[in-house]
Design a protein that fits this description.
Blueprint lengths: L1 E5 L4 H12 L3 E6 L7 H10 L4 E4 L5 H10 L4 E4 L6 H6 L1 H21 L4 E7 L22 H19 L4 E7 L1 E3 L18 H9 L6 E4 L11 E2 L1 E3 H13 L5 E6 L5 E2 H12 L5 E4 L14 H7 L7 H14 L1
Parallel strand pairs: 1-2, 1-4, 2-3, 4-5, 5-6, 6-11, 7-10, 8-13
Antiparallel strand pairs: 9-12
Helix pairs in contact: 1-2, 1-8, 3-5, 5-6, 7-11, 9-11
Bound molecules: nicotinamide-adenine-dinucleotide and UDP-4-deoxy-4-formamido-beta-L-arabinopyranose.
Length: 329
């Protein structure tokens, strides 16, 4: 199978490409490098010993994107490309709507024109807003609290409408929970520019001395120890979910949660990180962060049943591999 991977130089895309190559799939990458670096391509080649084709193209440039559809005959698309910083999306909503929506509409339009009908799309647990109960199932009500999340929900709606208009499309929407961890090689990982917003990139920077102290946003949530609970999933398990989605015999429009089904609090994650890596993470309790919810974790039963999804990495593995990447880089 030949797969077009948009956003393939990014964190989740690059790890998924390792899995695709291990499964003998051929990979074409399109990335504008707006949030990634070209050296990821060499690292992928070094880890796998296999070649990939890379095009530095912004998906918002439809005519440039068309050249790839003309040149490469691929069977399916995994669409990771998009901007993902929640806070930035509140400050620059138009940039988020333009980048995430125009790119996707261009891609889908060209897929239709060139008769490429299979797509796997990166959605997010953010589309569940503040869930009514836990664990979160795929049929729970959807709502969003920031422009980033709204772009994900809008793209899900676009995909559903596209499918209604043309049911020869084979669409899989994957709703990721909180991906962390890195490939064992230590070559690929999450490397955000500037001060990180997400918890794990912040923890590792404090551990290596690049940031002085971790602010734990709130200790009065209705959770096991008062700190926020999330469903952290190893990025390599997430990558595996994409290969399973491509191989899925069930066609049509499908939606799956990709999480472990287990909640971990901020304090539990920080303490585990310290323990497995034998390193100190300075921390202090700080006020709650606007928009945060008490707890969020997935029911992954549907992905288990229909995809054979079976996440195998523990929180300990995730902490070890995240630290290993940052120490090496
Ligand atoms: P990332 O920023 O590391 O990767 C995204 C890639 O897309 C980057 O390489 C970027 O340069 C590229 N890109 C962005 N806009 C583009 C455009 N218009 N044209 C071409 N390339 C473009 O992010 P990630 O963590 O790997 O996330 C991948 C996808 O998964 C995103 O759509 C994100 O919203 C979604 N997601 C991520 C998380 C998370 O916590 N990391 C959770 C849920 C969903
Ligand atoms: C996790 C927990 C914080 C930083 C976000 C997006 C979501 C998805 C994944 C893309 C919370 C606490 C954090 C810090 C802290 N991304 N925290 N100190 O908010 O669950 O989800 O990333 O789709 O859309 O909203 O992840 O890693 O930011 O926070 O105490 O410095 O860590 O309050 O409880 P979140 P996160």
């Amino acid at each position: 199978m030949k797969v077009l991977v948009t956003g393939g130089c990014g964190y989740i895309g690059s790890h998924t490409i390792l899995e695709l190559l291990k499964n003998d799939m051929e990979v074409i990458i399109v990335d504008s490098l707006i949030n990634s670096k070209k050296d990821v391509i060499d690292k992928i080649k070094k880890i796998t010993g296999k070649d990939v084709t890379f095009y530095e193209i912004d998906l918002c440039d439809k005519e440039k994107l068309r050249t790839i559809f003309e040149k490469e005959k691929f069977d399916s698309v995994i669409h990771f490309a998009g901007l993902k910083a929640v806070g930035e999306s509140v400050e620059k909503p138009l940039m988020y709507y333009e980048n995430n929506l125009i790119s996707t509409i261009n891609l889908l339009d060209l897929m239709k024109e060139y008769n490429v009908k299979k797509i796997v799309f990166s959605s997010s647990a953010t589309v569940y807003g503040n869930p009514q109960s836990l664990p979160i199932k795929e049929d729970f009500p959807l709502s969003t609290t920031n422009p980033y999340g709204t772009t994900k929900l809008m793209i899900e709606t676009i995909l559903k409408d596209l499918y209604k208009s043309d049911n020869s499309f084979d669409i899989t929407i994957l709703r990721y929970f909180n991906p962390i961890g890195a490939d064992k090689s230590g070559l690929l990982g999450e490397d955000p520019n500037g001060i990180p917003n997400n918890l794990m990139p912040y923890i590792v920077r404090v551990a290596v001395g690049k940031l002085p102290i971790l602010n734990i946003f709130g200790d009065d949530y209705n959770t096991v120890d008062g700190t926020g609970v999330r469903d952290y999933i190893h990025v390599c398990d997430l990558a595996d979910g994409h290969v399973l989605a491509l191989k899925n015999k069930k066609t049509g429009l499908k939606i799956y949660n990709l999480g472990t089904g287990k909640g971990t609090s901020v304090l539990e994650l920080v303490n585990t990180f310290e323990h497995v890596n034998n390193v100190k993470v300075n921390r202090q309790i700080a006020p709650r962060r606007d928009g945060d919810i008490d707890a969020c974790y997935a029911s992954n039963e549907l992905a288990k049943q229909e995809l054979g999804f079976n996440p195998k990495y523990t929180i300990e593995d995730m902490c070890r591999d995240s630290y290993n990447f940052v120490k090496n880089n």
